[in-house]
Amino acid sequence: ASSVETLEFQAETRQLLRLVIHSIYSNKDIFLRELISNASDALDKLRLESLADSTVQADISDLHIALEVDRDARTLTVRDNGIGMSRDDLVDLIGTIAKSGTAGLLEKIKESQDAAAAQSLIGQFGVGFYSAFMVADKVTLRTRRAGTDAGTRWESDGEGTYELQAVDGLPVGTSVTLHLKPVDGEDGLADYLAGWKIRQIVKQYSDFIRWPIRMAAEQTEGATGTENDGDAAVETLNSMKALWARPRSEVTEAEYTEFYQQISHDWLAPAETIHMRAEGTFEYEALLFVPAQAPFDLFSRETKRGVQLYVKRVFIMDDCEALMPNYLRFVKGVVDAHDLSLNISREILQHDRQIQAVRRRLVKKVLGAIKTTQANDAERYGKLWDQFGRVLKEGLVEDTDNTQALLELVSLPSTHDAERPTTLRAYVERMKDGQDAIYYLTGETRATVENSPHMEAFTAKGYEVLLLSDPIDEIWADRIPAFDGHRLQSIAKGQVDLDEPADGDQEADSERSKREQDFVALLPWLTTALAEQVKQVRLSSRLTTSAACIVGDADDISPTLEKMFRATGQ
Ligand code: ADP
Ligand code: MG
């Protein structure tokens, strides 16, 4: 046999290995995701290379990944028939961390006391292959680069050195054999030799990898969906069905629905399907759905956002808050970005400019899809608004970038039609001559709003008033200054007396001063008597049957909001 060479890991690699082994990740299962992702990349590379360069005599007829368990030896092997590595590749790629800034980053990680911070720092570069040392005390890698005859064995216990040896007769591709540490529940080490565990991890993290991930079917289980490969039954563990990666024209409605149901656990078809691909500097695919029915926990504190992040078909995380604002938490789906580290952390995603750009684009797409439904199918839109209107209104407070788009979507109860809500656009089209503001009144229920004394003059004079009784209405209506150039005006606040004659109208002036004469004694007396409760008592033209009503200052918070604040102890 050829001689064995012992080499040292680069200093940074040693430090990184120590960090990985001493559990940076609480979730050890991800080692398999990393190795499968490397194998998948290697298969992609071999196919590309053989298509681009016909001198590469590679067999690409059955590219796949195989997982092999040896219970007696306690090893798990991840094998691919992809591009493989030369001896020099091994030294450069596995023995060295080529990424710039690694040293500085490692310093910071060592200094940071808390594990979560360290984890987010390490997410800035992929620990990839090294994650194998979380679960294995020795790793043996055998590989042969396509187009060459020389194979190499690489082996290390992850301490300070690794061995290299030339080996003959290896197939093209790479096999990574993990000599597993003993099972230790406390350390998060599951039994990675158990078929069910392997299947579970593959399903969770690698289901949409586009190459088959195969494993010998266990005899006892009489597994379904097996194919006969020689004498041993072989099972393909992943579905490979990454619908989002296929062109829209090649996906049927039924496939979208099935996929949606699989990721959402919903039994209905989605109300909206949004499928897009972005090319250019930051490539990604997105497949998003608006459900037909709101989940029961839409307003609970624990509700998660429904968008999953993938990187090149490898599952990275659920509930990716960096990709969807809170008010679109009901949107389900998948975003698959091509140029992110598999270990990217939530903190880093939140601050990544490209991710922020993706999010802006996705929000526009979702709002655009809802707008299209609003324009084309009033009935379907009405149902959608019933389900998600209350959450969408949160966007009027949260998302100043899309205020206009959201204002166009909003659908609100109004005095115009007791049965059907109106859009602001339709309200504006119905405004009376000389009316410049959009009138609304907020309250706890629709009945209290409708029966409020504030309504009297508006009803009597035929002005339409929006009847707002969602708690969130208080907040957005107060913040949004105008729609289409028309102020939003609460009829419970400030000077909104109707038909108040303009100053300088002599006849009206004398009429007003005559009326004020009648009350000259009463008003100051009332103001003094009610000094604790009110700032001022005024004559009003806004009442028709009630004797008096309480009006807030233009910049006061409304009574309902005041109640809400008091209830929450603010
Ligand atoms: P990353 O995948 O982010 O580059 P890894 O630590 O996972 O980082 O892998 C380092 C490099 O080693 C890969 O970029 C690749 O060039 C090489 N490599 C790892 N596994 C394989 C494999 N199965 N086949 C071919 N090359 C591999
Ligand atoms: Mg990798």
Written account of the structure:
Helix 10 (about 380-400) packs across helix 15 (about 470-480). It is built from 18 helices and 21 strands. The chain has about 575 residues and is an alpha+beta fold. The mean pLDDT is about 85. The chain has helices spanning about 10-20, 30-50, 85-95, 100-110, 115-120, 195-205, 255-265, 345-350, 355-375, 380-400, 405-410, 425-430, 445-450, 455-460, 470-480, 505-520, 520-530, 560-565, and strands at about 5-10, 65-70, 75-80, 135-145, 150-155, 160-165, 175-180, 215, 225-230, 230-235, 270-280, 285-290, 305-310, 315, 330-335, 410-415, 415-425, 435-440, 465-470, 480-485, 485-490. It is elongated. The chain binds adenosine-5'-diphosphate (ADP) and magnesium ion. The site of adenosine-5'-diphosphate (ADP) has 15 residues, from helix 2 and helix 3. Pfam families: HATPase_c_3, HSP90. Homodimer. Belongs to the heat shock protein 90 family.
The first-to-last residue Cα distance is: 78 Å
The major pleated sheet works out as: 10 strands, mixed
Shape descriptor reads: elongated
Biggest sheet, spatial arrangement of strands: 1-6-5-4-7-3-2-8-10-9
Bound molecules: adenosine-5'-diphosphate, magnesium ion
Strand content: 15-25%
Mean model confidence by pLDDT: 85
Low-confidence stretches: none
Compute the number of helices.
18
Computed over alpha carbons, the radius of gyration is 33 Å
Number of strands: 21
Query: How helical, in percent, are the residues?
Result: 25-40%
Structural class assignment: alpha+beta
Quaternary status of these chains? single chain
Organism: Kitasatospora misakiensis
Biased composition (Acidic residues): 497-508
Protein name: Chaperone protein HtpG
Subunit structure: Homodimer.
